[in-house]
Structure prediction request, 414 residues.
Amino acid sequence: MIKNRGDKWTTEEINLAKELYEKGVIISNIAPRVNHSENAVTKKLKDLKLTGNRRVLWTDKDLDKLRDLFNQGLPYSEIAKKLEKTTRACQGKAIRLGLRTKECNVWINNKRADFWTDSEIETLKKSIADGLFMPDILKIINRSEKCIFNKMHELDLHFRERSEAEKAIYKRVYSVDDDYFENIDSQKKAYWLGWLVTDGYVISVLNTKRGLIKSNKIGLKLVYSDENVILDFNKDLKSTFPIEYLKEKSNLILRNNNLEEIKSKKQVCLELTSAKMIQDLAKYGIHQNKTYDVVFPKELDSKYYPGFIAGVISGDGCINVKLNHGKTYILRCLIAGTFDLIDNIKNILVKEIGVNPDKKITKNKGSKCLYTLELNQTETIALYNWLQKNGISLMERKNKLIEEFLNERVKIPA
Prediction:
């Protein structure tokens, strides 16, 4: 009969509990023999400093009985009760005795089919040797991440050390096609390169209170009316980065010893993080604080010049229709940028669409590095046709203005 709480232990009960515990008998079996609850037995053993890890030797008789009960097909919970040991102790001893597969019950009817095959092991070894990481290996081997990690530990396989770009991607919350600009092999990629050269920005280093820290930000910020450009760019990059909408704001700047209020319109911005993309864009001259030293990307294949020039004009160019001497409307195209950029674009257009080689590149008086090239109506139409021929066009707003002019929708007001 179990004693009530508070009943004192006799010397015989203490000695019996100590003897049984040292023999390896589990607490649940000791409790009824000493007529105390399991909690009371645990507390008493703790007072006697007997709790903790204990190594109880298995006798030959215990081992024979374990084999016999195992071969009878009994579950480990039943075996443990008969041997007066814990379930985990019986499981561990059975495994060490080689009793891994029961010749009874479920093991006969449902043989395990999840053992690693030789081909899977060779595939895993090759994947590690090729420098692949877990996300890629999971696509090749149809097993769980935990299962693959366990097999790697067993085979003493280790992932290679990640590069700085790979570490940045690994820590990132959102995703993007980091290899998009690795090889510019389409007019559309060249088009977005032109946009980044003109209206894009790169932040590779930030100056903070803690000093200079690394950053891998790439951004494109436009007025709200050009939201579709940002949406298309985000889609082509297969990006999950959020698009940010910026409200109108006013800033005070000092100009000629006078404070002037500058108002900015509502804007839309896509800013993403990709160390790999920053490395690829650097090959084409896109870097932090590029405003004053943008150059024409010599690495770009000449067959993708149309896409690049379309991007530059879409970003920093201007298409306008103005009244000529009050009689007719004329079409004009202005291309703006640094001298190196505009001079190279001019030479390409001279060759491709017949722009006058003597046409002057003019410097903007209010800027240190801004130059412009103006195309007349004939040259602007030739530019439009050249871009169409190569499967690319200006941004929708500017392209639409040219098409409306060609369709004679722009008329002199009465």
User: Anything to note?
Assistant: Residues 102-112, 410-414 have pLDDT under 50 and may be disordered.
